[in-house]
Amino acid sequence: MEACYSSNPWGRRIEKLGHTVRLIPPFIVKPFVIGNKNDANDALAIAEASMRPKVRFVSLKSTEQQDIQSLQRISERMIKIRTGDVNQLRGLLAEYGEIVGVGISTLMNANPDILEDAQNELTIIARSFMLRLYRNIQRVSVQIEEVKA
After folding, report:
1. Beta bridge partners of 23
2. H or E element that contains 77
3. DSSP states along 119-131
4. CB 33 within 8 A of CB 42
5. Of 4, 145, 19, 9, residue with least CA distance to 67
6. Of 48, 57, 59, 144, which is most buried with the most CB atoms under 10 A?
7. In 10 A of CB 135, how many CB atoms?
């Protein structure tokens, strides 16, 4: 079978029926696809690729391995979201003349004082959306820790 998003559950089901399942990475199959992509052409390409002497197969993942991989992907995505929010908040603060040092903890520690400082150039609207970003960063940080635990 070609290794794709649904190959692991299908592979486990097929193994339960007594068959041996070998998964081929898509990048190995792709050069053998002739014509338009459809089930018949894909099947021929998989068969052709599987007969090559140096083809390397990937192992079928257990549900536990899929759980770990899923949690890693979720964590990576949340970190990207948090990084984007941190960069946006730091940039918006700079646009109002409030420069904050590098690092999430530096930003998170400085932000409450900046938002409470009535002497800076932040408007009520700016304070409102910056507070929302700050709280979102806090929520995502908690979720990242929960996923990693």
Report:
1. 58
2. helix 63-95
3. TSS--HHHHHHHH
4. yes
5. 9
6. 144
7. 12
C-alpha distances out from residue 67 to 133, 140, 147, Å: 30, 20, 11
CA quadruple 34, 35, 36, 39: dihedral sign: negative
pLDDT, tens only, 72-120: 999 999 999 999 999 999 999 999 999 999 999 999 999 999 999 999 9
Report the SS3 class of residue 15: helix
Tokens of 133: 């970003």
β-partners of residue 58 are 23
Q: Kindly list the domain boundaries of the chain, sorted by start residue.
A: 7-50, 63-148
Q: How far apart are CA 93 and CA 107, in angstroms?
A: 10
Which of 15, 107, 108, 100 has the alpha carbon at shortest distance from 63?
15
